[in-house]
Amino acid sequence: MFKVVDLFAGPGGLAEGFASVRDANGNRVFDIALSVEKEPSAFSTLRMRSFFRQFERAPREYHEYIRGELSREQLVGAFPDQWRSACEETIQLELGTPEAAAQIDPLIDQIAAEAPDRCILVGGPPCQAYSLVGRARNRGNAGYVASEDNRHFLYREYIRILARLRPVAFVMENVKGFLSASVDGENIFSKVVLDLMAAGGSKDSYTILPLVVSNARGGSAHILRAEEHGVPQRRHRVFLFGIRHDFPCQMSVFQLPEHHLRPRDVAPSVRQVLGGMPVLRSRLSKIKDSPSAWRAIVAEAFRLAARAAFDEESEQIDMVALRLFANAEAVSGRNDVLPTKSTESAIVDDKELADWLIDPELDHLPNHETRGHMESDLARYAFAATFAEMFDRSPKASEFPAGLAPAHRNWTSGKFADRFRVQCWDQPSTTVTSHIAKDGHYFIHPDPLQCRSLTVREAARLQTFPDNYLFEGNRTQQFTQVGNAVPPYLAFQIGKVIQRVLE
Fold it and tell me: Could you tell me the pTM of the whole model?
């Protein structure tokens, strides 16, 4: 069994994937020895999931905890040994400081001593400074100096620990912007690659191998497109996979294309993972909320959107207007009461993902609760979702009726052409990011009659977190955790590749 150290772990997407890899006898191939995360709510999620993995089969008390019938203290009190193991496996720590190094280094040394030549390092240093959006935002900040932004250099802590642990393999994950980011004219990606290769003391201590075959679309062999590997989401991230040069393994075999990650013929869609979810309504923001108030306000939002659409000189938008009026009548004529949360189990229309996401013993779906929306945004959601329902794509800002334009100075600039973005039923979703914590504008539900943004659980399904994966903290914190994570199902497939190479 290999020991895994997970740095900058977030809620534990990478660890979840690796821990799920089994050998031919059903035994775990990877044991999570240490996971490190600084943010309190993500750490709480991480530790609870570590506790969950201490059992081959989740106890009844865990499900009672998910249902809110048991407190955290009562749950861990019933299983003190398993909780102690979870506490030993997870540590809340802000990496990159001398104080953190003094705390983590003895743990790293212990793991290296206990499992020589059986350690693996994984993790993704914070990516805000590398992302294209983050870089654009930084350029807009007066006095911003890239070389003084510590986030650019947290990868050095990863490399410092890599050199100390000397694992047989490592995986480092980051955003695509990582490839083009630079500080003082020096390309960050090239420097990181050289530093990773030299982490063992010589310039070629580690060999960096591709996880996928580079293709004709111009993609790097270090970029994984999640939708090509069973994740219902267009999420493109850099993964650097390194093998220690002196470790005997199947690297020569791995060079053959059939031993890389194998893409699926057809990417899973939003409908396949969200189509069977319990139907919900949004909450109402800044006004008294009730089912009847929601029905009246949303019906009027559809009518407002329809009238604005009819004011445009476009046959296409006129067609949308007619559908909007029909949707207004459908909403106002409903006799049922849509809830704002649901704990009902939900089917998945994809065998591979159903096996991964659904826990047959889970009778309570956690984190499936809507947020509140302003009346003005409800009209925009109504228009956007209706448009997407008709044309199987989200409308651009230029296609919105003038009467629905937000008071946003960049609305017509082209910079925010998809500020209101619908996740269309029959396609993979767009990238689930931490921005979903701020508002739901980029993550509008494809069903117009629900007229809302996605819930935490829906976002978690698009990220391939199993339904029994409980996100701790408030809803904003939960969204942030989901958006920042590595999809566990993708991590699982990476783990299987590493298993083939190392054993």
Answer: 0.92
